[in-house]
Amino acid sequence: MMISRKAACTALGLAATLMLASCQGRRNVQEHLAPPFPGRLSAWRLFTGRPAELHPNAGVVPYDLNTPLFSDYADKFRFVWMPPGTFAAYRPDDVFDFPIGTILSKTFAFRTEPNGHERLIETRLLVHTRSGWVGLPYVWNRDQTEATLDVAADPVPVRFVDAADHEHSTNYIIPNSNQCKECHALHKVMGPLGPKARNLNKSFAYSTGSSNELVHWAAAGYLKGSPDPATAPRAAVWNDPSTGPLDSRARVYLDVNCGSCHRPGGAAATSALYLDLANNSDENLGVCKTPVAAGHASGNLLFDIVPGRPEESILVRRMESTAPKVMMPEIARTLPHEEGIELVSAWIASLQGACTAARP
Length: 360
Ligand code: HEC
Ligand code: HEC
Description:
Elements: H1 5-12, H2 17-28, E1 47-48, E2 55-56, E3 61-63, E4 75-81, E5 88-89, E6 103-111, E7 118-129, E8 132-140, E9 147-149, E10 156-161, E11 167-172, H3 180-184, E12 185-186, E13 189-190, H4 197-200, E14 203-206, E15 209-212, H5 213-219, E16 223-224, H6 246-257, H7 282-285, H8 314-320, H9 338-350
Parallel strand pairs: 5-16
Antiparallel strand pairs: 1-2, 3-4, 4-6, 6-7, 7-8, 8-9, 10-11, 12-13, 14-15
Helix pairs in contact: 6-9
Bound molecules: heme C (2 copies).
């Protein structure tokens, strides 16, 4: 229906009031293709109604991922918008090729009590401008009426309950605008990370009913060239054994949580530890691999991964840590991800083989 909307908009012009409303709907979002970018999130007009409810404006489509990035147990609300008449080109293994004007947004929120409200902390935008992708961190006020652009925000003390209703508290750290590129840049060029076929090949409960995300994006005119979901790649859900074996779940967890830096061309490329799914060398995966920079971060451990021995694997040690220069990811978390550590530990415990003693 919406695929040919731009054509329909142009042809009908002012004649069809209903159609006009829907054309203006997708146009209602405010594009900013070059600096200066708005100081207030509301200026983008991505949402309507009460700001804290994140009620999407026309053409703003919510999505989520099979396996997400862990960020201190924050709940995340993701949305995509593209200018009228434009669409992303499907790619089987990579992030889709998004048109200029695309706005991807991700809002981080915490549940302050069981069954309680979400407190919004920050909304991150990735905007495809004429000169490439730009990352913009907006921080919500205490009243939850507005979020303002803050390129170097202070930490926010939060108390919250996770999905299992366990209580946590932390001094939540909002990455500054320079840190976006540590994860989001490939060969120093900024880009999105999440919207890949395998991660979007899942069902989502839209306000109009449940549908596969790839199908929904295509129907909304946002995606061209997408195959039937049955033949498109599909990533396992890291914590749902019905979606894939231990190996697949651990590998996709590492892909999303580590692979943005730990891939050729990523911020951690010099370590030659490649945790992205495309890597199929055991050595680059860390198996019996001695770390490039030994010392404090490795403790007394010799190898990134010792098959069968998570407790002797530097990889697990660094996931458990919250100490600067030791912890991994090195930014954008303050708490260890207990369930993620369990998954990766179980996977390492399942690996066969032995490492020969490190060279002196
Ligand atoms: C520790 C690595 C890391 C840092 C730092 C980081 N991001 Fe991301 N970001 C990710 C990953 C991985 C995803 C995809 C997975 C997900 O959404 O759970 C993502 C997703 C996003 C998305 C949704 C679209 C997409 O690319 O999937 C936006 C918007 C975003 N980030 C903006 C930002 C901005 C702005 C900053 C800096 C203020 C930032 N991010 C810092 C890793 C990071
Ligand atoms: C924001 C970028 C970033 C992310 C995300 C990230 N790392 Fe790293 N990692 C680095 C950098 C940079 C180094 C090299 C410097 C060092 O060892 O501290 C490194 C080094 C390492 C090393 C030592 C590797 C070697 O052989 O020298 C291990 C192990 C490691 N990371 C594990 C992980 C794991 C596991 C994750 C995900 C849970 C992760 N990292 C996510 C940036 C990152």
